[in-house]
Design goal:
alpha/beta, TIM Barrel, globular
Length: 267
């Protein structure tokens, strides 16, 4: 895998809350941290990382370029601002957060700028987020699939996004699952609960293990030390083929994130 299978998400966390979450995560052994320009927490994340004492080369830091920063020189300039906030000379992975609304900035333009950022050493890997099959095809046409490390998409047992996954895998592009726990909805699912009971695990551990077993990277977030520690144990879990099939059967196309004016026409 070109990116770590397990990381710490920071969506919706700001100020001391995100500082505490990242600090605790790093203390527990998390080494991949996912943030974004639009989260407005890069400086807080940078503060937590700096205070942790964990060597930069042991970390995998991801951020995402917001749609307002796609045009002209803005993408690279905004990435440099992100680096300053995060107190680092480079990112391990930089993603296009959402496609350009109404195609205001062509895919080829912002992907070209992102590839240039990689050539300049500002980021080691690049990728996309919330891209449909058509948008992935445009990105591949622009810079080549070999330069696209991942497509970070909403993916959980109720939205398994199989068309996007299959196309990405056919091109050698890894999937990163966000909202893997569906804002906690899947934690109450009786199928997952039964598997968890049998394995003496939590529903969150089962769900995260399911996604990783499919080859996806996961980036769950939490503000609770117990949950951060518990989630981390999902990396060591192995589900049976029967359990994987049961969870596969939960897909119902239940999408939770589709911001008006930004979201593409989904597959």
């Amino acid at each position: 895998m070109s990116i770590p299978a397990f990381g710490l998400g920071t969506f919706r966390l700001q100020g001391q809350v995100v500082i505490d979450s990242v600090s605790t995560g790093l203390e527990l052994g998390y080494r991949a941290i996912d943030t974004a320009q639009i989260y407005e927490n890069e400086a807080d994340v940078g503060e937590a990382i700096a205070a942790s004492g964990v060597a930069r080369e042991k970390l995998f830091i991801t951020s995402k370029i917001w749609v307002a920063n796609f045009a002209g020189d803005r993408l690279i300039e905004s990435l440099k601002e992100s680096l300053q906030k995060l107190r680092t000379d480079y990112l391990d992975l930089t993603l296009i957060h959402w496609p350009s609304p109404e195609d205001q900035v062509p895919v080829a333009e912002f992907m070209g700028a992102l590839l240039e950022a990689k050539r300049l050493g500002l980021t080691r890997q690049i990728g996309v987020s919330n891209f449909t099959v058509d948008l992935m095809k445009q990105a591949i046409a622009a810079i080549g699939a070999e330069h696209i490390a991942t497509n970070q998409i909403e993916l959980h047992p109720y939205l398994q996004n199989r068309k996007v996954v299959e196309f990405a895998h056919s091109q050698g592009i890894q999937i990163t699952s966000y909202m893997t726990l569906a804002y906690g909805e899947v934690l109450k699912d009786p199928v997952i609960a039964r598997i968890a009971d049998r394995l003496q695990a939590t529903a969150a551990q089962v769900t995260l293990a399911w996604a990783m077993q499919l080859g996806h990277a996961v980036i769950p977030s939490s503000t609770q030390r117990a949950n951060l520690a518990s989630n981390l144990k999902a990396s060591a879990m192995k589900l049976s083929d029967a359990d994987m099939a049961l969870i596969a059967g939960l897909d119902r196309g239940h999408r939770l994130t589709s911001p008006k004016g930004i979201a593409p026409i989904w597959d």
